[in-house]
Design brief:
This protein is α+β, with helices and mostly antiparallel strands. The protein is about 35% helix and about 30% strand. The protein has eight helices and eleven strands. A seven-stranded antiparallel sheet has the order 1-2-6-7-5-4-3, with helices on both faces. It has a two-stranded antiparallel sheet with strand order 8-11. Strands 9-10 form a two-stranded antiparallel sheet. The longest helix has 20 residues.
Length: about 250
C-alpha cells in the first residue's frame, strides 16, 4: 500500500515505508521549480511518452519519468483515475507481488493545478546490467548452455507469473529487460524496467493472456534488425515451458 504526504497545496508525495524527503525536494526543485539542484545531478536521457532523466544523488543513481497529459483523451481519463506516476508505482507493486523483479520503485510525485492537467514524476532506482538484446548478442552466451537455460527459465516464469496475476505486457521490447548475471556467484536475475505498458486485465482468461503476451514477445525476439542467432531456439523452449507450467 502506498503512503501519501502533502508537500504543498498542489504537490503530493507517494511512497512506501520511509519517505526520502531530501530526494523529493531535490527533484521538485529541478523539475517543477526550474531551480539549480543543490546536491543532485540530472542528465536528460530521452523523451517518448515522458521526459526521462538519470539522477545521481548522494552516491545513488535513479531514473525519473516526468509525465504530463498531452492529449484531450488523456486529460479526460486522468480526471477519473490516479496520475500516471501513481498508477505505475502501483503496477510495480503488482509485479513484485507476482514474483517479477522490477526496477525498485522509490517515489511518485504529483502536481495538480486547477487550470492545468496533473503532472507527475515516477522515480525508480537504477538497475545495472546489459539489456536483454545486448546480452543475447554476446557470443559467449550463445555457447554457454547453463546461462542459456537460466535465461530461458527466468523468462518463462516471467510470462507465467504475468498471466497468473492477470497482467498483460503490451511492449515487451528487449531493451525493457535488464539482465544481472554474476556467474561467479551463480546469481542470475532479469529485471523489468519501463513498465508503463503493463496492464491489469482481470476478465481475460490466463491462457488468453499468456498467448497474447508470448505473441508480442516472439515478435520482439525475432525482429530482423536484432539478428539474434539462436532466437528460434529460445522462443521454442520458452513457449514449451509456458504451455507446460500454466495453471
Amino acid at each position: 500500500m502506498l503512503m501519501k504526504k502533502q508537500y504543498s497545496p498542489d504537490i503530493n508525495l507517494y511512497y512506501q515505508n520511509n519517505l526520502p524527503d531530501d530526494l523529493a525536494e531535490e527533484i521538485i526543485r529541478f523539475v517543477w521549480l526550474n531551480q539549480e539542484p543543490v546536491e543532485g545531478e540530472f542528465v536528460f536521457n530521452r523523451e517518448i511518452r515522458a521526459k526521462v532523466y538519470r539522477m545521481t544523488f548522494r552516491g545513488e543513481a535513479y531514473y525519473l519519468k516526468v509525465y504530463s497529459a498531452q492529449t484531450m483523451s488523456k486529460i479526460l481519463k486522468n480526471f477519473f483515475r490516479p496520475a500516471d506516476a501513481v498508477r505505475y508505482f502501483q503496477t510495480s507493486l503488482k509485479l513484485l507481488n507476482a514474483n517479477i523483479t522490477v526496477a525498485e520503485p522509490i517515489l511518485a510525485l504529483t502536481r495538480k493545478n486547477f487550470f492545468q492537467p496533473t503532472q507527475s514524476i515516477f522515480v525508480t532506482r537504477e538497475v545495472l546490467g546489459p539489456n536483454l538484446r545486448t546480452y543475447l548478442m554476446d557470443e559467449d552466451i550463445e555457447h554457454d548452455f547453463d546461462c542459456r537455460e537460466k535465461l530461458i527459465s527466468q523468462l518463462s516464469h516471467i510470462w507465467i507469473n504475468l498471466a497468473n496475476h492477470k497482467l498483460a505486457h503490451h511492449d515487451p521490447h528487449l531493451l525493457n529487460f535488464i539482465v544481472h548475471a554474476d556467474h561467479k556467484n551463480q546469481d542470475f536475475q532479469i529485471n523489468l524496467i519501463d513498465i508503463d505498458n503493463v496492464y491489469f486485465k482481470p476478465f481475460l482468461p490466463k491462457k488468453v493472456l499468456l498467448a497474447k503476451n508470448l505473441k508480442k514477445f516472439k515478435w520482439q525476439l525475432s525482429r530482423p534488425e536484432f539478428s539474434i542467432p539462436y532466437s528460434n531456439l529460445i522462443w521454442n523452449k520458452i513457449r514449451t515451458n509456458c504451455e507446460t507450467l500454466i495453471k
